[in-house]
Specification:
globular; Immunoglobulin-like; 2 domains; 8 helices; homodimer; alpha+beta; 19 strands; 24% helix; Rossmann fold; 6-stranded antiparallel sheet
C-alpha cells in the first residue's frame, strides 16, 4: 500500500538512530529514539538541549543527581551539554533552567512532581532487581478508578492494584494497603515513579509478600464549601473524611477486599507519612498495620501526648497494632535523624516499632521503593 | 499536631487562590491552583507565562486552538500574555516558543503527543455530555497491563477497559474492540485525551452500546533483530506480528473475552486507521468489525486492487464483514475528502460501508471522541 507521511513520521519517532560513536547508553526514561540523556557505566549522566538563542543553561534536579545547579556548555550549533558526577541510582526529577525559565527535556518522559509535570531520569541500580518487571511471573493489574467525592465536590482518581490470581480466584478476598504520595506529587507517583505494582508482583511471586490489593489516591482534598483553603486542619479533616467515608467504602464495595482492620494497612511517604500517622493512629478501629516513610522532621515528639496519647498504654497499643514501621534514607539526614529519634523514644517507652534505613539514598524514590520492598512482606502475617 | 513545611507546600499547591477580578475560569486541564490558561464563555483562551529574560514568546498548538503562532505580549513584571480568538471545543495540544525553544506550560498537565510530552488544553463543549464522567452510573476500570514482546524484545503496555459488571458477572464473556492511536501519540492517548473509557461507560449506561472490553496498545513496533528501522514494511510486519501473535492471545488468555472474529473489532485514528485497514482487511478470519478514523489521505485508491483485492467480491465481503466504517472531521479537509472518496467508491462497487462526519473539527481529539461515540454503538449487534 502507499506509504503516507504520517506513517513515516511515526516510524521516525519510533526508530533508533545509529550511534556508534557515542559513549554510554540512552536512559530507560527517554522517549523512543532519544539518544540523550545518556548513562555511562560509572553512572555519570550526559544531558543535551538545543537552545541556540539561550545565554545560560543550567541543569537542576534531585539531590541524588545534582547537588547544585550545573552550568551547561554551548557548542557552535547551539546545543548545550553537561555531564554530571556519578549519580545515585534510581529515579530523579530534573529540568533545565534556560535564561531563568525552568523547562523540561523534550527527550524524557514527564512525571508529576514539584506541583507540575517534570522530566525524570531512571538510572538502573546494579543488583537491584526488586522493582524490575519480570516476564515469567504472574502479574497484577493497575486500574484507574474515578469517583466523585461529596466531600470535595471534585472527581478523584484512585489507582488500584489487584494481585495475580485476582481474576481467576473469584471467591478469594484480599487485604488492602492504602499508600500515600508526598507533597508536589500525585496519585500516579507510586504507580509510575514508585513502581509499586512491579514491587508487589515480584514479592508475591517469590512468596515474600501476601497477595494484597494496593490503593493509591491523591493526598490533597479540601471541602467543597471552601473557596480558599489556607487552613491546615480543615484540609487534614477533608482528606480524612474522603479517606474514611468515601475511599475505603468505595474500595470495599467495588473490589473483593477483607474489610476489617486486621486486613487493612496504611502507609505514606513524606507528607503522606504525616497524613498516615495522623489518621491511622487516631483510627485504630480501621487500621492494624501502619507505616511512615521519610516523615517530615518534627521537634518535640512526646510519646505521652503524641497522636492524642495513643502511645500512653504500650501493652494495649502493642496488642492492637500489628505493625508500626518507619523508614528513611541515610542521605536525607534531617528526615533520617528525626525518624530514628521517634523510633527510639517509642521503643524506650515500650512501643514496638520497626525502622528500615535505606543506605545512601536521599528524599527520593529509591528510598521509597526500598521502603515498600521492606514494608510489604511484613503485612497481613497473622 | 505540629504543622510541617511540606504539608503547607502541599496545601499551597492544592488550594485555589482568590481570583475575583479575573475574567473567565481556569481550564479543567490546569494543574491544581493554576489560574491560567483561562476560558471565557465565548471560548477565547488566555495564556500566561513568566519568562522575564525572553525576547520573544509565541503560543503554538493544534489548529482548533491557534491556526498560526500567536505573539505574546510582555508586561513590566516579565509575564507574557495572549488571548486567542474563539477556539474549537475539545482537547488541543499547545506549547510556548520562547526565543526559538519549544517549552511546555507549567500550569497545564502534559500528554504524550508530537513524539514528546506536550501541554494540553481541554475546552468544554456545551451540550456535549457524552465524554463527561457521570457520578451516578456504573463505570468500568481502565487497567494497565505490561507484557514483554518476543517480537520486539521490549516491554509494551496495553490499556484494557473492562466494562461495568465485569467484576460481578464472573461467568460473562465480552467482545473486544482494539483501538489504535495516531502518529506521535502513544498507548495512553485513547484513555487520557480520547476519554474512551468514559465514552463507553456512558453509552453502556444508556443502553446504546453493548458492554465490551476495549484494548489500547502502542502502534509502534520493530523487530528485535533490527537495530535501525527505516523500512516501512518491516515495521508494519512487526506491529502486525505483535498484534496477531502476542496481544490478542494475551488479552484472550487474561480477560473474559469472546475470542472469535464475530466478537472482535479493530479501529484506529490517522496512522492507526491505516494500520487497522492494512491489518484487519487482510485478516478477516480475525475481525468482523472494522473502523478507520481520519485515515491518511491517499490517492489512487482502486477498489479492485486495494488490500490484496478484498473488495473484489462485494457479496462475499458484505456477508463476512459486519461493519466497515469510516469517519473524518469537516475541518481536516484532505482527510475528509479522501475518506469520502474511498467510502463512495466502495459503495459504488457494492461494498457496504458507513461514513460519519464530525462537524467543524480538525485532525484532533474532538473528531475521534465523536467518532468512537458513533462507532461503538454499531458494534457486536448481531
Amino acid at each position: 500500500m502507499k506509504t503516507t507521511l504520517l506513517i513515516l513520521l511515526a516510524l521516525t519517532l519510533a526508530s533508533a538512530r545509529p550511534c556508534a560513536a557515542l559513549e554510554g547508553t540512552p536512559a530507560p526514561s527517554n522517549v523512543s529514539g532519544a539518544e540523550y540523556p545518556r548513562l555511562t557505566t560509572d553512572l555519570r549522566v550526559t544531558f543535551q538541549l538545543k537552545a541556540s538563542q539561550a545565554q545560560q543553561v543550567l541543569l537542576e534536579g534531585g539531590a541524588g543527581l545534582v547537588k547544585a545547579p550545573l552550568a551547561m556548555t554551548r557548542d557552535e550549533t547551539g546545543t548545550w551539554t553537561v555531564t554530571t558526577p556519578p549519580a545515585v541510582p534510581g529515579f530523579h526529577y530534573y529540568w533545565f533552567t534556560v535564561d531563568g525559565l525552568r523547562v523540561n527535556d523534550p527527550a524524557s518522559y514527564a512525571w508529576f512532581g514539584w506541583g507540575r509535570e517534570t522530566s525524570g531520569l531512571e538510572i538502573p541500580e546494579e543488583g537491584s532487581e526488586f522493582y524490575t518487571r519480570r516476564p515469567n511471573i504472574p502479574s497484577g493489574d493497575v486500574r484507574e478508578r474515578w469517583y466523585l467525592s461529596k466531600t470535595t465536590g471534585q472527581w478523584r482518581r484512585a489507582h488500584v492494584y489487584t494481585p495475580p490470581g485476582y481474576e481467576s480466584k473469584t471467591r478469594t478476598r484480599y487485604p488492602v494497603l492504602y499508600l500515600l504520595h508526598g507533597a508536589g506529587e500525585n496519585e500516579r507517583g507510586w504507580v509510575e515513579q514508585g513502581r509499586a505494582g512491579t514491587i508487589l508482583d515480584n514479592l508475591i511471586a517469590e512468596g515474600k509478600a501476601k497477595p494484597m490489593i494496593l490503593v493509591v489516591d491523591s493526598g490533597y482534598a479540601r471541602f467543597a464549601s471552601q473557596t480558599v483553603d489556607t487552613n491546615r486542619s480543615a484540609a487534614t479533616a477533608a482528606f480524612e473524611t474522603v479517606m474514611l467515608e468515601e475511599l475505603i467504602p468505595l474500595i470495599d464495595a467495588h473490589y473483593r477486599t477483607r474489610a476489617d482492620r486486621r486486613h487493612r494497612a496504611m502507609a505514606g511517604l513524606s507528607m503522606g507519612s504525616g497524613q498516615t500517622l495522623n489518621l491511622a493512629l487516631r483510627h485504630l478501629d480501621r487500621f492494624a498495620w501502619i507505616g511512615g516513610m521519610s516523615g517530615p522532621p518534627r521537634a518535640g515528639f512526646d510519646v505521652n501526648t503524641a497522636y492524642d496519647g495513643v502511645f500512653r498504654d504500650p501493652a494495649a497499643f502493642n496488642r492492637k497494632v500489628r505493625l508500626l514501621w518507619f523508614s528513611a534514607g541515610t542521605a536525607e539526614e534531617r528526615f533520617h535523624s528525626s525518624t530514628v529519634a521517634i523510633h527510639e523514644s517509642l521503643n524506650r517507652a515500650g512501643i514496638k516499632s520497626v525502622f528500615y534505613s535505606s543506605p545512601g539514598t536521599d528524599h527520593e524514590w529509591q528510598t521509597w521503593r526500598r521502603s515498600l520492598h521492606d514494608f510489604a512482606p511484613r503485612l497481613f502475617r497473622d
